[in-house]
Design a protein that fits this description.
Elements: H1 6-14, H2 19-33, E1 38-42, E2 45-49, E3 53-59, E4 64-68, H3 101-116, H4 137-144, H5 147-155, H6 158-169, H7 174-189
Antiparallel strand pairs: 1-2, 2-3, 3-4
Helix pairs in contact: 2-3, 5-7, 6-7
Length: 200
């Protein structure tokens, strides 16, 4: 098992007896599904990082919690949603409460792909409209050269426009920004939202 953290070993050892095999199993499946994952401790419990925060597990007196940071984008795969102490699998009290290894690996691999694609986690915010993000000049110029893309952008609700604008302006390098603009125009010309891969 690569990139393990001795603090996670200590955490599992100190966990209630019923929780130890569950935690060890989750750990094993996560590492098998994502070879590049790294263990760490966050909020006093084991977490797995892969190109950023990824997933985590916790042991309680009577149950184990396991959840994903970007669970809001994985609703079709997960039995629960949102961030909570119990995670998206509810209160895990035995191995029977977890999906089979193949199904669990599929869910973990999907979460990995979200991080590979640099998809942002849904923001935790108060209800109400968010302030508009102004589209940068280079994105508007690229859209002006593609009528279909421009029309799609104009007809998007504010939230979908914001997703594309944020994706472009968050690029740290000029080459990355140019590539994202080109991809954005291509996708919008096809009528696609920024996170179309994860929408059903």
């Amino acid at each position: 098992m690569a990139k393990t953290d001795p603090r996670v070993d200590a955490y599992i050892k100190k966990a209630p007896p019923f929780a130890r095999p569950i935690l060890a199993h989750i750990r094993k499946v996560v590492h098998a599904a994502v070879p590049g994952v790294e263990e760490t401790m966050k909020w006093s419990s084991p977490h797995f990082d892969y190109k950023g925060i990824f997933c985590g597990m916790s042991a309680f007196k009577a149950h184990v919690g396991f959840g994903f940071w970007k669970a809001g984008l994985m609703k079709d795969l997960l039995p629960g949603s949102g961030l909570s102490a119990a995670g998206q699998f509810g209160r895990i009290t035995s191995m029977a409460d977890l999906p089979g290894d193949k199904e669990l690996a599929k869910i973990i691999t999907f979460a990995k792909q979200l991080n590979d694609d640099e998809v942002k986690a849904p923001p935790m915010r108060k209800a109400g409209p968010r302030p508009a993000l102004k589209a940068p000049a280079d994105l508007l110029a690229a859209l002006a050269k593609n009528r279909k893309a421009a029309t799609t952008f104009e007809n998007f609700p504010p939230g979908q426009r914001r997703e594309y604008v944020a994706w472009v302006i968050e690029a740290k390098q000029a080459a990355t920004r140019e590539k994202r603009i080109a991809t954005a125009v291509e996708w919008m010309a096809e009528g696609k939202a920024r996170n179309w891969k994860y929408m059903k």
